[in-house]
Specification:
Length: 329
Amino acid sequence: MNTTLSRKLGKSGIEVSAMGLGCWAIGGPFQMDGKADGWGAVDDNESIRAIHRAIDLGVTFFDTADAYGTGHSERILGQALAGRRPDVVIATKFGHTYDEERRELTGQDASPAYIRRACEASLRRLKTDYLDLYQLHIWSLPPQQAEGVAETLEKLQAEGLIRAYGWSTDDLACSRLFADKPHCAAIQHNLNVFENARELVELCERHNLASINRSPLAMGFLSGKFNAQSVLPADDVRGSGHEWVSYFHEGRPRPEFLERLEAIREILTSNGRSLVQGALAWIWGRSEQTIPIPGFKTVAQVEENAGAMRFGPLTPAQMQEIEELLERR
């Protein structure tokens, strides 16, 4: 087992591998606002094999959400982790309402009663009696409502249903509302070499919160497999027309990101790393609080992702060179 690179889940003190796995893609197809919100078709058996391989390679942290495949991702993760629960750390999220039969997100709910119901449903799907990290999956809430969510989560923690909680948001003001709460351990936010999230990382450092990094590979852009002619299908979240997808427009890679990638490709692939491994190394070089959670659908993707832990972070000199090439201070 590879145990050379590890991190703490913020002030919870829970130890995890420095890289987790994001389980959005293995949820399979589902929709939001009439558009695909998944990553296309998925092979559940391959998903389970990939999770088992990840554990063999030293990955101990798995992040999912009840929204992913409207419960399907949690079920597959629960199946894969049967008999291995003591060896892993599970994070999931709540806040979206959904129709499981139609595989469609239908709204949002952060009321105390709903949070408790959602928690209990996630526990059943994941086949566990506790969650290590339970995260609010609503982008923003007014302060008074956020306070009520935190109070509910503190109660769930006191009851032993969750060990810690966090918020999945890129909103700095919202992150501040949770930062000082007794059992808030993490903020999950976008972070990759294109998007350095300076203020959110600083907040996590200041409050000893884990900076859990979604889109560490810029929704696959940093795999290097896309060019100006690439077009993603409408059954893929990157090609379905969601306005919040930053790196692709109508299924095509945005030219400005292709240009930035070429500018830094040589540094990211230095020392024998693949491009993916270099992108993850950049994240570890940003802060000791960072925990990237790249997605996966195959064993091969897991092997490449986990292989990044053998190399560790980029050097300070490499980090500085990237900042200069991307013309950031």
